[in-house]
Description:
Chain A has 155 residues and is mainly α. Chain A has seven helices and two strands; from the N terminus they run αααααββαα. The longest helix of chain A is centred in the N-terminal third of the chain and has 21 residues, at 21-41. Chain A is elongated and about 60 Å long. The model of chain A has no long low-confidence stretch (mean pLDDT 92). The structure holds a DNA duplex (30 and 30 nucleotides).
Amino acid sequence: MVCTMEPTPGAATPARLRTTPSWLLTQTAAHAARLVAEGLGALDARGYHYRLLAALDEFGPASQADLGRRCGVDRSDVVAVLNELAAKNLVRRSPDPADRRRNVITLTTAGRRELHRMGDTLDRVQDTLLAPLSPSERDELNRLLTAVLDHHSGR
Amino acid sequence: MVCTMEPTPGAATPARLRTTPSWLLTQTAAHAARLVAEGLGALDARGYHYRLLAALDEFGPASQADLGRRCGVDRSDVVAVLNELAAKNLVRRSPDPADRRRNVITLTTAGRRELHRMGDTLDRVQDTLLAPLSPSERDELNRLLTAVLDHHSGR
DNA sequence: ATCCAATGTTGGTAGGGCCAACATATCAGA
DNA sequence: TCTGATATGTTGGCCCTACCAACATTGGAT
């Protein structure tokens, strides 16, 4: 879905906007989000799902709070996403014997399989997104964005 | 207020995410949006308000449909934002004698003044956002984002 | 014991980005 | 000139990401 409400061709966008980094960033991100939504949507998933599955795959079983911290997802949102993932048997949620406050979230085999499928479609999405950039330009973009991101994070 | 639900320091973010352009983009954009919201919020405004005012200032009076097309804002959202701007006397909405379907939206003196105030705070926001980048890096980022944006737009 | 911190949950909120439908008005072609 | 396709302003609604507040339960530290 999403047909993007971007400035329509034929109607010039104000220069004040075109030259503002925050505008460039949010507009480009909107395109990225749209493409990601389309890609993951075909797999009946959203960005949040991929994030959590990726963290589970890379770091192994974890508590919900850990997952949220790693992926930048609020605790309350983690709950909802995990409910959905668990309903599809992509993860298992079991109480942590060592700390009864926690749940241990484990990636299932089906979950790992889905993760890979999502990863593949996301790879294609990146390519579509960055189509106009050369490999070195893509690297440079990644570098700059990472710098900004690191700066505004805990570091 | 938005305190950003970013990956918490101490908890590593999955490499799969850290190296994915679309993730870098949306996360950075989230920071940008947060900073913009804080800045404009202090002036009791939002991004949409700035966009429309900027277009009016740069291109003069326009119809609502034109404004929406120029700024990438849906017609229905333009209505709401214009209601708010008109309530504050920042714009005037009058029927177009030449085409009775349209309204002619005009920037008022107060509107132009507010626009400048917003522009000033947004300038500061850009500086905060891009703090870790050198001037040439900022230019490069702008260039790359513009390329991606142009590619995915009407061109 | 006590108090503070962390965890999982529920239930909101806000902004940006859309869509469908409608009445009214315009315009181009038959 | 009649007519069907289009454009415009409006209303009402939906979704996703990003948060926040509050609460009960469980751990930890003192």
